[in-house]
Specification:
single chain, alpha/beta, Spore Coat Polysaccharide Biosynthesis Protein SpsA, Chain A, 5-stranded mixed barrel, two-stranded antiparallel ribbon, 11 strands, globular
């Protein structure tokens, strides 16, 4: 880490990297480029490093690895273990199964609260494209600073929309909050119909990047309000976290709970607690389908001279395989 990066670190902050998804939307492409099924966060789709590794490097611009938890899925151990060799065991949150983003976030928050008390936390997916890591993380840092003042707020990073894409969540900003860079959220839509998405684009609404910053307790309280049964189930086993029986207890819990999406079931019902910080000067995409991946490759410097799996991806995207999809 260089001196500039060290100066930008938020000393009391921590981060959760979500890497437990199954990556089904791009499975056809990762199967072909890597010779077998592999979730996209473990694939080098945009350069020589897997997306998870890129995300870890990105987060390090402001949060040290010692204060970063990575949430994974036990079924993916053969993929994540080599990439997390340098991570302390207590920084890896292993879910027994994929039960959606809400359980993943709640489990990680409970682990984080034991390690970092009620610190300010950034939650970041592990499989996104960002054109400029330093600039992107400067927005996350600004969200940290704003949330330090607005302690009961969840700050979402909103990306300027370039199309009426119904595959994204959408955020309608309202008024600026004080002297901060945060805007109140008038309304949050999770993947609206195509006609509504087009209208939201025309109105200047933002895409939800699913990168959010908040106090740990604030996010936990949102989940408790929106999903009381899920919160109660996790709260009942809180004393097992960090104990020898944690894995066994979590395996039992994950057999009992249903998959739950955090955006759909929590954010969409918490508009009064949300704020948005618009991204500027940086391109972002969740590369959730072949067109978004193609756009990211065209923007990425690595697309000029693709190597390894990224080269295979470029050839597949340029060929007839995807034109039929």
């Amino acid at each position: 880490m260089g001196t500039t990066v060290e100066k930008n670190r938020f000393a009391d902050g921590c981060a959760l990297i979500l890497a437990g998804g199954d990556g089904t939307r791009l499975r056809f492409l990762t199967d072909k480029s890597l010779g077998g099924p592999r979730p996209k966060q473990f694939c080098a789709l945009l350069g020589p490093e897997p997306l998870l590794t890129q995300t870890r490097h990105r987060v390090e611009h402001i949060i040290p690895r010692a204060r970063t938890l990575v949430v994974v899925n036990q079924a993916h151990e053969r993929f994540y273990a080599p990439l997390l060799r340098d991570a302390p065991s207590q920084s890896i949150v292993v879910q027994p199964a994929n039960r959606g983003t809400a359980p993943a976030i709640l489990y990680a928050l409970m682990r984080a609260s034991r390690q970092f008390d009620d610190g300010v936390v950034a939650v970041l997916p592990s499989d996104h494209y960002v054109s400029d890591d330093a600039r992107f993380m400067s927005h996350v840092k600004a969200a940290f600073e704003a949330v330090d003042e607005e302690c009961h707020t969840v700050a979402l990073l909103g990306a300027p929309a370039t199309a009426g894409d119904s595959g994204y969540g959408w955020i309608e900003p309202a008024d600026l909050i004080g002297q901060s860079r945060l805007y109140r959220v008038r309304r949050f839509w999770e993947k609206p119909p195509a006609s509504a998405a087009h209208e939201l684009w025309q109105r200047g609404c933002l895409w939800n990047s699913f990168v959010m910053v908040s106090r740990i307790s604030t996010l936990v309280s949102l989940i408790a309000s929106a999903l009381p049964d899920l919160h109660a189930a996790f709260d009942a086993i809180a004393d097992s976290l960090g104990a020898p029986q944690e894995r066994e207890v979590m395996e039992h819990l994950y057999r009992e709970i249903e998959p739950v999406d955090f955006s759909e079931r929590v954010l969409a019902f918490a508009e009064d607690r949300l704020a948005v910080l618009p991204l500027s000067g940086v391109h972002w995409s969740d590369i959730g389908d072949s067109q978004r991946l193609r756009n990211a490759l065209e923007r990425s410097k690595s697309a000029k001279v693709p190597t390894g799996a990224a080269a295979v991806t470029s050839r597949l995207l340029a060929g007839p395989i995807l034109s039929q999809r």
